Amino acid sequence: MVPVQMSVDPNAYAALSALMFFIGVLGVVLRRNPLITLMSIELMWNAANLSFMAYSRAWLNNAGHIFTFLVITVAAAEAAIGLAIVVILFRPRAQSNVDDAMLLKG
Amino acid sequence: MAVFAILAVALIASAIGVISARNPVHSVVALLANFAALAVLYLTLSGEFLAMIQIIVYSGAILILFIFVIALLGAGTSIEAPGPNRLTKLTLPALIVGALALVALGYGLLRAQIPSGGGMLGAATVLPVSRGEIPAVTITPGAEGAFGSVADFGRALFTTYLLPFELTAFVLLVAVIGVVVLAGAAVPERRRKAAEREAIAKPERPMGATR
Predict the structure, then answer these.
(1) pLDDT 10s digits, A20-38
(2) Which CATH class is domain A11-100?
(3) Among B58, B59, B98, B177, which one is least packed by beta carbons within 10 Å?
(4) Residue B197 to chain A, least CA–CA distance (Å)
């Protein structure tokens, strides 16, 4: 096996992660299909993970890997709950819109 | 460097595809491409175990969950509802906050310090190196206990980070209960009431008896 050096500045990874996070925010703000909103949230989770991994490698510290692992777990739980809410929203009518979800407004 | 550039382009292009597709199924496919590119990026960062986890958990479980929901709801044709987007009032404040966040991020990146050595965070000697300098650390993939290997990751997970790992189980339990409470109430009220009445009326029926 060939020893590998980190050939790219970790800040480049961080910039990439920031760009991806920004795209996720755009998706949440601009799209009103709840499924695509959830996917945009997944994009944001993964952008955070990429930063964790990059700086974990730069510092040679395992903590970033552990954090990424925990974030993936929490993202799975969030996706399950979010999709359950989407199922409830979709059930009574054929079309759904996050703006219609105003039950908490009383 | 070339690998990073290709992966970065793929990552951003697929992310834009996720939020711009009209059809949610196309979004899921774009998200799959995004996760694949991300997994390869993890490999370039010596995160072997997490690259596999990314493929297995994200692409194998979470995306399939999305596909299931789309298929269950027959939402392949669902388009966004017409009507005004009520968030447009917030455009100007959002732009200001976004610009401020971008400035803060750029400042942080310019000031970032890259460590010159390995080891734990507290023990590492932090030297303010100039931007673009490569940390002089080599990793031998496949070596016993190399950084990012399964052995390395597992040892950290089950010793130093055991408590967070255990708490993960609690988070998943809460998620399972939440999903059952939210989406599991599919039995109509009338049928459940009838079943309860029947159970009260015939308490002496032996266990396991068929109707």
Answers:
(1) 998 998 888 888 788 888 9
(2) mainly alpha
(3) B177
(4) 28
What span, in angstroms and rounded, lies between the C-alpha atoms of A52 and B38? 13
User: B43-66: b or e for each residue (b if 16 or more CB lie within 10 Å)?
Assistant: bbbbbbbbbebbbebbbeebbeeb
| Residue A4 bridge partners (DSSP) | B139
Q: Is the separation of the CB atoms in A58 and B135 below 8 Å?
A: yes
Which sequence spans correspond to the domains of chain A? 11-100
Has the ipTM of the complex gone over 0.95? no
User: Could you give the residue ranges of the DSSP H alpha helices within chain B?
Assistant: 2-20, 24-44, 48-53, 63-73, 91-111, 150-158, 162-183, 189-201
pLDDT per residue over B130-188, tens digit each? 444 445 455 665 566 677 788 888 888 999 999 999 999 999 999 999 988 887 765 55
Closest Cβ–Cβ partner in A35, A65, A90 for B66? A35
Q: Which of B152, B104, B96, B177 is nearest to A60 (CA)?
A: B152
Question: Which tokens sit at A26?
Answer: 């755009």
Residues in chain A within 8 Å Cβ distance of B116: none
Q: Is A96 on the interface with B (CB under 8 A)?
A: yes
Q: What is the pTM of this model?
A: 0.75
